[in-house]
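Thread: "does anyone have the structure for this chain?"

Original post by V.I.:
We have the sequence but no experimental structure in hand. Need at least a predicted one for the grant figures.
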Amino acid sequence: MKFDTLQQGISFYENYARVSGFDTRLYSKKKRKSDGKISLKYYVCNKEGFRETPRLQSNCKKKRPISRMGCNARITLKLINDQDNYVIFSFHEGHTHP
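Reply from O.Q.:
Generated one for you, tokens below.
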């Protein structure tokens, strides 16, 4: 799919996630050095990855429940250089959790 702006691509994935029953979060982004435009933007399922071990073992007063389960669902939006549009560069639909 092709989007006129980055925000349209983000809105598309957030709407898809809402209908599918999961939440998203920004994972990473890369900017072009020449003009500072975002060339790649990664959005993932909010259960992607695992929490860092030191945080789990610390002696905090308030323990948070484990929310990250290593889910692989994600989308990558990529800037098309000559058109200033964004396309879905990669899409992984599968979740590793219910």
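V.I.: this helps a lot. The CA atoms of residues 65 and 74 lie 23 Å apart.
O.Q.: and The longest strand covers residues 24-31.
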